[in-house]
Write a structure and sequence with these properties.
The chain has 298 residues and is mainly beta. The chain has 1 helix and 17 strands. Helices cover 3% and strands 58% of the residues.
Length: 298
């Protein structure tokens, strides 16, 4: 029989989209603080000075939880759906620091979480865990760009120990990040954003989710008219085990892959879309996700 901690934490951790822009051995085989695969094309290209609005959205669906061997944990009627709309405000200053553009951002995830298992179900909507932080942007050429920074994910989402459909994780995460973009109107386009999660302690459960390294990627071909099509996804690997009463089973890992699409114009408008399927999942839920991003210049 599945231990109660697997059910409780796999469900409550489905409110992952604290975004760090989120079962890891993630406190009972749940999901990480950052929604894997959130970023796609142009993740490493910081816009010019000014205030910019990025809008993220999507749906994430999970229908099973995998153990450390990749086998399905038999949780009857397990299903999690997360809907997300997340505005991110980016302020790119005219100042240069260490040769890069200095920028700041804040992201506010609005979530709807629906969960069910073993004859129980719950739905909750509201603000998730807010992310904010500084960054430096570099432009090596018209095609090659990079961003480095650090995000702080604050436990602002509603959380109650042992409850289904929590909107937050109830702990801080510090997330250094680096992204690289190679973009051209016609030809190969490539993006990668790598992150490391340093998770603090959950004071209610006395459990600490283990640290992890993960990356979002996109590889496509530009057709010369603003459109790029290709593949994208993510890779995730926990490098430190959980600790505490609700520690998950082993170190989590997962990969995602699926089709991607991008449109951009010279005025700074950008739209990306991707669908991805989880593969090679260990110690966390398995499912698929559809994610979109729009950049709106002011």
């Amino acid at each position: 029989m599945v231990k109660t901690k697997y059910l409780t934490c796999a469900l409550s951790c489905a409110a992952l989209v604290g975004l760090s822009y989120n079962a890891h051995a993630i406190e009972g085989n749940g999901l990480p603080i950052y929604p894997d695969g959130l970023e796609s094309y142009m993740s490493g290209a910081l816009p010019g000075p000014g205030v910019h609005l990025l809008m993220y959205g999507g749906t994430m669906r999970y229908n099973s939880v995998r153990d450390r061997h990749g086998d399905k944990i038999p949780v009857p009627d397990f299903k999690v759906e997360v809907g997300m709309v997340a505005p991110r405000v980016v302020w790119v200053t005219p100042q240069q620091v260490a040769g890069g553009q200095l920028a700041f951002h804040a992201l506010f995830p609005l979530l709807t979480v629906k969960e069910q298992a073993m004859g129980m179900s719950k739905r909750r909507s509201g603000l998730g865990d807010i992310a904010f932080g500084p960054a430096l942007g570099y432009h090596f050429s018209d095609a090659a760009h990079a961003v480095i920074g650090v995000d702080f994910v604050a436990p602002t989402g509603r959380y109650k120990k042992g409850e289904m459909a929590n909107l937050g994780r109830n702990y801080w995460t510090i997330q250094p990040a680096a992204a690289f973009t190679y973009t051209q109107p016609k030809g190969v386009n490539f993006d990668i954003k790598a992150m490391v999660d340093f998770n603090m302690n959950n004071s209610d459960t006395h459990t600490r989710t283990g640290h992890a390294i993960h990356a979002d990627y996109a590889l496509g071909y530009g057709f010369g008219n603003g459109w790029v099509a290709g593949i994208g996804g993510y890779a995730y690997q926990q490098f430190k085990k959980d600790s505490g009463p609700l520690a998950g089973d082993g170190k989590a890992r997962a990969f995602g892959i699926g089709p991607t699409l991008r449109y951009a114009n010279p005025n700074g408008w950008l739209f990306t879309a991707k669908w991805q399927q989880d593969v090679g999942v260990r110690s966390r839920p398995k499912g698929h996700q559809f994610l979109v991003k729009a950049a709106i210049p002011f």
